[in-house]
Design goal:
Helices cover 0% and strands 35% of the residues. The chain is an all-beta fold. The protein has a domain at 267-312. The strands form 17 sheets. It has a two-stranded antiparallel ribbon. Strand 13 and strand 14 form a beta hairpin. The termini are far apart.
């Protein structure tokens, strides 16, 4: 190395020649200034990205504020993760927030994605879209959609599609995946189920497994507000399976099934039931699906047909 500019003796420098990029170190020796390296006694400049180096392109430290780090394998100052080299300007530019690594010279084209942020690389478009069930919130981390959605956008609750087989249908205006008719949302406290469960067979719609919300009058059902159920209208019975109530035998005012009356209509000249509602004495069944019993001939006590007495 070049000798001292000034010295106390042959081995102790007091100043160095800054014109040839020398500086005095703590051992009172003249060494190359920061940003320079020694080559055969001459101080030569490091690569512009290096703070210090042992050769022009062999860095030992990198300048701050350039979005670079020291790659110890290559002794070069490479772009930080999330930044990409612009070869024209030699600057490290920030990648699009969705990319983990982006393509050289293109900040908005990804070459890899961060899977822990729920993103997967689309190799056709070089983009890192959010995985199914997550949405982009203009930040690296994708956020989870509502359990009701299969896919969503702009917010967790604005659905763009519903899960197949979930018994849900998309309302495109509201962006919701509501349960289909005859199904209900089974969310209970903190347990959320994507699949809507079937309502009780009697309900047109319901709030849970035992409470109807609406009834279908075309199925001859009316709402029982006390028990929160859809019961059969007068003259119809529940077969325990179908939403459609079945018509009672014509003789009955109400019934439990197709052959057993529960109540009879005395104004139709019918007696208290055994299994059906027989006609009162002095009246007969016309067998014409008419609940009203017709009067026998005045001379009869009982009859089969109006003028044909069984008893007198």
């Amino acid at each position: 190395m070049t000798t001292c500019l000034t010295c106390n003796n042959n081995q102790t420098c007091t100043s160095c020649n800054s014109g040839i990029f020398l500086t005095l170190n703590s051992d009172n020796l003249c060494v190359c200034q920061t940003g320079y390296y020694n080559l055969s006694g001459a101080c030569l400049p490091c690569n512009s990205l290096c703070i210090s180096c042992i050769a022009a392109n062999t860095c030992t430290a990198c300048k701050s504020g350039l979005n670079r780090f020291l790659n110890t394998n290559t002794s070069t100052c490479d772009c930080l993760s999330g930044y990409v080299l612009n070869t024209s300007s030699n600057l490290c530019l920030g990648c699009h927030y969705s990319c983990q690594v982006c393509v050289t010279n293109f900040t908005n084209q990804c070459s890899s994605c961060n899977s822990s942020y729920y993103r997967t690389l689309n190799t056709t478009t070089n983009q890192c879209p959010c995985n199914i069930g997550y949405y982009d919130n203009n930040a690296p981390l994708c956020l989870a959609c509502s359990y009701t959605c299969y896919t969503c956008t702009t917010s967790a609750t604005f659905c763009t599609s519903c899960t197949d087989g979930s018994n849900r249908s998309l309302n495109t205006t509201a962006g919701t995946c509501n349960c289909d008719q005859h199904y209900y949302d089974t969310i209970v406290v903190y347990i959320q189920n994507v699949i809507c469960a079937a309502c009780p067979y009697m309900c047109s719609s319901c709030t849970n497994v035992s409470a109807c919300l609406t009834c279908n009058s075309s199925n001859y059902r009316i709402f029982d507000s006390l028990n929160i159920k859809c019961i059969c209208a007068q003259g119809f019975y529940d077969d325990g399976t179908n939403e459609l109530c079945l018509k009672c035998p014509y003789q009955c005012s109400s019934c439990t099934n197709s052959s057993v009356c529960l109540t009879c209509n005395s104004s139709m000249n019918r007696d208290t039931p055994a299994s059906v509602c027989p006609c009162l004495n002095g009246f007969y069944d016309t067998n014409s699906s008419n609940q009203l019993c017709a009067a026998c001939h005045y001379s009869c006590k009982t009859c089969n047909i109006g003028t044909m007495c069984d008893t007198c």
